[in-house]
Amino acid sequence: MPAADRSDSQLDTGAAESGAAPTPHEGGAGDTLDAALFEPLDRLATLLLELDRDPATVVTSVRVPRPLREALGLAVELGHERSVSDALVSAARRRLDHLVQDLAFEEYYRRYPENRPTLADLALAAAELADDPLKDKPELLAEVAEWLLRRQTDVGPEDVLMAAAGVEHERMSA
Amino acid sequence: MSDFLPKAIVLDDEAVQALTDRSHPKHARARNLIDAGRGNKEADRPVVVVPVAVRIEAGWDRTAPSASLVNRLTRATDVVLDGQAADGAGRWRGALGVSVVDATVIEATDRSPRPVVILTSDVEDMRRAAALLDGDVRVVRI
């Protein structure tokens, strides 16, 4: 990309990623979502983007439980970690990535509630990822998901798969 | 179930496009697959990876405002195409007759932890590749 264009892009990014002057989403061409829809995440996402591009470090003091420090030292000795600092930074980075992802999904479904998948939808997707034979039984997954939701609200796709596997087993052995 | 979730998910061009655009006909499907991958336990969450050639083909500039959705829903990590990866991708292209970009998808899959899922619209080529790769490689149609 030419330098001038790059500069413009960076300015755009600064506005979008920092949440400055968000433009209301009007469902424009292609209905592509823009950063303005995710203002609460902007600063966090920007910092993680910066982390990818500018890994400059600062010295900071962090209190770490002694056993954790010793365990990390052992992991370094065993060659599983490059250093205690790397292990801590990597774990923190992973946790922040997950936080951004979780908040992004929450925000997405809050703004587009009609797009929120059902428990059965997610169970089917999980079955596909897991290459579970239940991926070919969407009706069973829907039936089990509905049954579970009638009894408790705090259920996830994995609960559906486990219960559906039980139902399938019973049917096979009947 | 978490034990059976993949440790990595590799995105191809159409998977990226579907996740980028809410009006894409496969957006809901792609989004559900990424959402389901979040699983129950944080430690079990698969890493999502994207070869840089896929990003180029799909026009995924992480700094573009229009990329915020795919950036955040996937938290995808770039798989860079260094000299060694280019050699590997070149071998896959020669062996399978796939496109350059698909060859980088296969190369990225080869380097990913197992089990690994390839989210792709090109199921036939990726299944041919999966048959040649070691370990648990799953191909899921986007």
What keyword list fits this structure?
heterodimer; A: 174 residues; 63% helix; B: 142 residues; alpha/beta; 5-stranded parallel sheet
Question: What does this molecule look like?
Answer:
The complex is a heterodimer of chains A (174) and B (142). With 174 residues, chain A is an all-alpha fold. Chain A is built from seven helices and no strands. Mean pLDDT of chain A is 79; it is low at 1-35. By secondary structure, chain B is α/β, with parallel strands linked by helices. Chain B contains seven helices and five strands. Chain B has helices at 13-20, 27-37, 52-58, 68-74, 83-96, 100-110, 123-132, and strands spanning 8-11, 47-51, 77-79, 116-120, 137-141. Chain B has a five-stranded parallel β-sheet. Chains A and B meet through helix 1, helix 4, helix 5 and helix 7 of A and helix 2 and helix 4 of B.
One letter per element, helices H and strands E, the order of chain A comes to: HHHHHHH
Mean pLDDT of chain A: 79
Largest sheet of chain B: 5 strands, parallel
Poorly predicted segments of chain B: none
- Count helical runs of chain B: 7
Q: Using DSSP, what is the number of strands of chain A?
A: 0
Give helix % range of chain A.
Answer: 55-70%
Kindly state the mean pLDDT of chain B as a whole number? 94
Helical content of chain B (DSSP H or I, runs of 4+): 40-55%
Task: Report how far the terminal alpha carbons of chain B are from each other.
Answer: 21 Å
Strand arrangement, largest sheet of chain B? 3-2-1-4-5
Structure in a nutshell:
The complex is a heterodimer of chains A (174) and B (142). Chain A is mainly α and 174 residues long.
Task: Describe the secondary-structure layout.
The complex is a heterodimer of chains A (174) and B (142).
Chain A: H1 3-18, H2 42-53, H3 66-77, H4 84-111, H5 119-129, H6 138-151, H7 157-173
Helix pairs in contact in A: 1-2, 5-6, 5-7, 6-7
Chain B: E1 8-11, H1 13-20, H2 27-37, E2 47-51, H3 52-58, H4 68-74, E3 77-79, H5 83-96, H6 100-110, E4 116-120, H7 123-132, E5 137-141
Parallel strand pairs in B: 1-2, 1-4, 2-3, 4-5
Helix pairs in contact in B: 1-2, 1-3, 3-6, 5-6
